């Protein structure tokens, strides 16, 4: 009968304590602490490999950055999440550029269309803002909060975690909601799907699924390949002093 890793470590600690006393136990504890980052890195690499296999169309760098930002948030006080949504805004709106993952089962739940802000660009999102009234998309790491029924129907509020990049999301009413203009049939007439006032709007047919899967403290990472944004994200660099207070994020 085999032992789990935790059981094996406990038995090892007991043996070393009996043989070498407190010094031996302290030595072992120090060894585990040194190895902890390696175990965490290996676990994240394993998660990346499995999710990448589930979503071969997702830019690998976008997925790596999403996982790194999420792990940074968790390491600095955010609760664990069951779901992760990744939006690759470097792709055109005519492509399915939203991915939603089940982190516990390590599987892809949905890949679908998502809108960007009307002042962010036409088919490609090229300008981003955190300003009130900008009608532009915000990038970075978000924490989802409560669902509600509003003028767009069943919707989901989010809190931006990155100061200066997306932390005014709630004040800007940046929410996930369904919209008729998120429709691939728009492409033939307009050369793109419809655009929002800054919200990551989705097709009405999948809006309930998206909200139900992401509500209550999940992570959403809006990514772009623009090096200027990549250099300015507090979560990619994992700079705690630049992070918004996690208490503002919905973790219900």
Write the layout of secondary structure elements.
Blueprint: H1 5-54, H2 60-75, E1 83-88, E2 98-102, E3 107-112, E4 140-150, E5 153-160, E6 175-176, E7 178-179, H3 186-190, E8 202-203, H4 204-214, E9 219-223, H5 227-232, H6 234-237
Parallel strand pairs: 1-9, 7-8
Antiparallel strand pairs: 1-2, 2-3, 4-5, 4-9, 5-6
Helix pairs in contact: 1-2
User: Which word captures the global form?
Assistant: globular
Major sheet description: 7 strands, mixed
CATH class of the largest domain: Mainly Beta
Number of domains: 2
Q: What is CATH's topology name of the largest domain?
A: L,D-transpeptidase catalytic domain-like
Distance between the termini: 40 Å
Number of strands: 9
Relative helix content: 25-40%
Question: What's the order of the H and E elements?
Answer: HHEEEEEEEHEHEHH
Instruction: Give the percentage of residues in beta strands.
Output: 15-25%
CATH superfamily name of the largest domain?
A: L,D-transpeptidase catalytic domain-like
Arrangement of strands in the largest sheet: 3-2-1-9-4-5-6
- Identify low-pLDDT runs: 1-13, 24-39, 245-252
CATH architecture of the largest domain: Beta Barrel
């Amino acid at each position: 009968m085999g032992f789990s890793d935790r059981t094996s470590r406990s038995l090892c600690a007991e043996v070393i304590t009996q043989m070498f006393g407190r010094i031996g136990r302290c030595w072992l504890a120090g060894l585990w602490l040194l190895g902890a980052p390696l175990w965490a890195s290996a676990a994240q690499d394993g998660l990346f490999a499995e999710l990448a296999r589930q979503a071969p169309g997702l830019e690998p760098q976008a997925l790596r950055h999403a996982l790194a930002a999420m792990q940074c948030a968790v390491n600095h006080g955010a609760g664990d999440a069951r779901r992760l949504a990744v939006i690759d805004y470097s792709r055109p709106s005519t492509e399915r550029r939203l991915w939603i993952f089940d982190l516990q089962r390590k599987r892809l739940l949905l890949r679908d269309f998502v809108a960007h802000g009307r002042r962010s660009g036409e088919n490609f999102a090229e300008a981003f803002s955190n300003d009130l009234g900008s009608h532009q998309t915000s990038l970075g790491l978000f924490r989802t909060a409560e669902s509600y029924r509003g003028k767009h129907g069943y919707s989901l509020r989010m809190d931006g975690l990155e100061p200066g990049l997306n932390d005014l999301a709630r004040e800007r009413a940046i929410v996930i909601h369904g919209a008729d203009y998120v429709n691939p049939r728009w492409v033939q007439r307009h050369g793109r799907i419809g655009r929002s006032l800054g919200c990551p709007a989705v097709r009405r047919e999948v809006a309930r699924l998206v909200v139900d899967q992401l509500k209550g403290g999940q992570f959403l990472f809006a990514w772009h390949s623009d090096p200027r944004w990549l250099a300015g994200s507090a979560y990619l660099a994992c700079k705690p002093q630049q992070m918004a207070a996690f208490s503002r994020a919905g973790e219900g």
